[in-house]
Amino acid sequence: MELAYIPSPSRGVIHLGPIPLRGYAFCIIIGVFVAVWLGNKRWIARGGRAGTVADIAVWAVPFGLIGGRLYHVITDYELYFSEGRDWVDSFKIWEGGLGIWGAIALGAVGAWIGCRRRGIPLPAYADAIAPGIALAQAIGRWGNWFNQELYGRATDLPWALKITSSTDGRVPGTYHPTFLYESLWCIGVALLVIWADRRFTLGHGRAFALYVAAYCVGRFWIEYLRVDDAHHILGLRLNNWTALVVFLLAVVYIVISAKKRPGREEVVEPGASDTEAEEGDGEEKKAEADSSEEASEATEATEDAEDAEGVKDEAESAKKG
Fold first, then answer.
1. Which residues pair with 19 in a beta bridge?
2. DSSP letters of 237-256?
3. How much of the chain is in helix, strand and coil states, percent to nearest 5?
4. Whole-number Å distance between alpha carbons of 55 and 39
5. Whole-structure pTM value
6. Is there a contact between 103 and 65 (Cβ–Cβ < 8 Å)?
7. What is the per-residue burial (b if ≥16 Cβ within 10 Å, else e) of 123-140?
8. Are 220 and 234 in contact (CB under 8 A)?
9. What is the pLDDT of residues 246-275, one digit of tens each?
10. For the residues of 131-187, what is the DSSP string, one character each?
């Protein structure tokens, strides 16, 4: 007897007239906004200008979406190019299928272009947005819940996910909610990076590398639970190998970077401090001007009062005379 389980949505899209509103897309969009919001706060705290993170995200997000889709299509090409499949479906990103490895790799290229245009060091920008990316992943994973995809092995645990769809080879039943596991893990990764960044004053891309390494640890065991079709190498899923390799690269980067460039960048955005100083000087001058104006008005009021008193005295003298 099933006592408890996580229900799946009856559908992942709602039609507002001719316009389809898809849960998967909403999760991606909300995740992007959260990443930009948190990244902006961290960037300002490190001495950057407000709005810079959003400006660079205009480059990074489209590149990331393309990279994520390319990775998925290339590694799961049989879903789109095998017999009986329609290759046009490879462009239907709203139906799910974004590989985080490709999204980060090509998204970094977009961020590099945006940073280069602004004269900003990419590692400093990456450190600022790292926790936000982890939170964006945590939110984006709920898109898989809307699509009833990427679940784990069958289970009767109280938090099992109930799959009701039978399309594309799905078998209705209760399974490990790997989307939920990864979502919670990503929240933990975001908190870890924020804490470590404050505790150890991470810089030169090390906060971002810590995010990558911590995410790979969780992705390795979560990937091991999944039952969707995937390519295997020496008994392990392709994404397990990817997580292992990327984890090692991230750790090596942290060690080498800490030795070669310890500490944190003193300036992350050229000219940002000058702009703040100019704004501060402007406000100070305005305050001085307001103060001078108030003093002048007070002096004029005093002089008017003295003149009125003099007129009154003259009138009284004339009356007595």
1. 16
2. EHHHHHHHHHHHHHHHHHHH
3. 70, 5, 25
4. 12
5. 0.81
6. yes
7. bbbbbbbbbbbbbbbbbb
8. no
9. 999 999 999 999 999 998 998 889 887 655
10. HHHHHHHHHHTHHHHHHT-S-BSB---TTPEEE---GGG---EEE--HHHHHHHHHH
